[in-house]
Amino acid sequence: MKKNTKRSSVYLAVVFILLYLPILYLFFYSFNKAGTMNQFQGFTFKHYSALQKDTRLLIIALDTLRVALLSSLAATVIGTLGAIGIYFSRAKRTQRILINLNTILLVSPDVIIGASFLLLFTLIGFRLGFYSVLVSHIAFSIPIVVLMVLPKLEEMNEHMITAGRDLGANQWQVLKEIILPDIRPGVFAGFFMAFTYSIDDFAVSFFVTGNGFATLAVEIYSRARQGVSLEINALSTLLFLVTIGLVLIYYFIQKKQRSKKQPLSLDPTNHEKAVRP
Amino acid sequence: MDKQRKLLSAPYYLWMGLFVVVPVLLMLFQSFRDMDGSFTFLNLKGYFTSPVYLYMTGQSFLYAFLITAMTLFISYPAAYFLTKTKHKQLWLLVLILPTWINILLKAYAFIGILSQSGLVNQLLGVMGVGPQPLLFTRSSFLIVATYIEIPFMLLPLFNALDGIEGSLILASRDLGANEWQTFRSVVYPLSLSGVRSGIQAVFIPSLSLFMLTRLIAGNRVMTLGTAIEQHFLVTKNWGMGSVMGIVLIVIVFVVMGLTRKHQRGGIG
């Protein structure tokens, strides 16, 4: 038995190292004096100061953040209301169909979303740019919000609603005073997931950015295609530190709220991945 | 009162209709149009009679299958061992944290690692093997794709394994099963829901990883995703691109259908 635990720790350690090695490799070379990702010739911060002067990249970073914040907020509102709508739909059959539809949207490949949006925007003559990216991010974030909010609705004690109504609360009050406070953790989780999806998205944005507007991922793609530039390494180091901070904050908020039985409800990045058993 | 509720969820239905159903219908419509916009069956016919496209689709399938199999092979033991550690939630978080790094940055890291004088070739050099061309090969695509998809397999597997009642395992041990027998007849069948979710979460995206085929495989690998991107953004043959899009959608439905939870007998 003891031998077994040892073997399993070794296995986990190997997986851990394999998963982190490429990332650490990236960070390590961000301090490289030479401009390559293979010969380390001494320590420098020059790639970081180059990053600081790169206004184009900074504007793109701000734009990416703007898209992520706005799209996740909008997706949270629409998705939460949608989840409430699905939950209260009378016929169980309709409900099941709607939930299945939501799952299919979650797993639908980015290229399909991107390409079909490109078709739509072209057809109605919508100019590609900030708004086209925003709209498509909202669309692919909604299903994840629904997925996060629905279980909370199912956990809710329905008698509370009946009681509230008996005591004279109108629809709006029931929503505001009973339902929303109850499902708040799910709504927050949905917002967080929508935000990370948006930050992380590349494929959908790639189809609908057009000229003149770019998100970070799209910009990194075009730079990486031209070869290695250690500015990207510096940028990814900073991004990773920020994300770790965000994830840890989220983890500890969740930990406070989580009851023992529920699985960890954070679910990594790309929106097709949120399928849970 | 029902009216009010419907009013509340109206934005949801509206948004989903306008930005999900309509675009997909447009894609279906587009697949019957030629480059000038007139109606045609040529795209469909072209796709299903072209050996190049069919071969590409098959290859795409094969790659997705290999990636899924490799991630499953690596992640299953990891998830199983994870459930036995102390502070398992924290360790899980540590293992899936890399997913919060943009996929492009990870791919970019591999451009360095696999390059002619990169980390792997330096290691090979130490072992006395000369530098191998690693980047822009099919195997590099498989390696990087597997690396990127591991956490997405790990998470559903962990959730399924962690959800198994401890008392079931104790009961099985009490009844005389050894550890392997317990695993085979109790743990493994109960973890299948996680395996199914993991396959969904890895197989479908693996069909469309066009950025990896471009950055890592140097156009040596053509997946459905690459072909769609190419037709939409490079050659602007939207009709053919849409046909492939529809094919991809059909595949998604098939995969979802095959990996669906069985209603009877399973533990939900």
UniProtKB/TrEMBL annotation, chain A:
PROSITE patterns: ABC_TM1 (PS50928). It is found in: Cell membrane. It is a multi-pass membrane protein. Its main location: membrane. SUPFAM superfamilies: MetI-like (SSF161098). GO terms for cellular component: plasma membrane. One of its GO terms (biological process) is transmembrane transport. InterPro entries: Bact_Polyamine_Transport, MetI-like, MetI-like_sf. Residues 61-250 form the ABC transmembrane type-1 domain. Keywords: Cell membrane, Membrane, Transmembrane, Transmembrane helix, Transport. Pfam families: BPD_transp_1. The chain crosses the membrane at residues 12-31, 67-89, 101-124, 130-150, 202-222, 234-253. Gene3D superfamilies: MetI-like. PANTHER family: PUTRESCINE TRANSPORT SYSTEM PERMEASE PROTEIN POTI. Belongs to the binding-protein-dependent transport system permease family. CysTW subfamily. This is Spermidine/purescine ABC transporter permease. It comes from Alkalibacterium kapii. The gene is potC.
UniProtKB/TrEMBL annotation, chain B:
It is a multi-pass membrane protein. Keywords: Cell membrane, Membrane, Transmembrane, Transmembrane helix, Transport. One of its GO terms (cellular component) is plasma membrane. It is found in: Cell membrane. GO terms for biological process: transmembrane transport. It comes from the Bacteria. Residues 57-259 form the ABC transmembrane type-1 domain. The chain crosses the membrane at residues 12-32, 52-78, 90-115, 198-217, 237-258. It holds the Pfam family BPD_transp_1. InterPro entries: MetI-like, MetI-like_sf. Belongs to the binding-protein-dependent transport system permease family. CysTW subfamily. This is Spermidine/putrescine ABC transporter permease. It comes from Alkalibacterium kapii. The lineage of its organism: Bacteria, Bacillati, Bacillota, Bacilli, Lactobacillales.
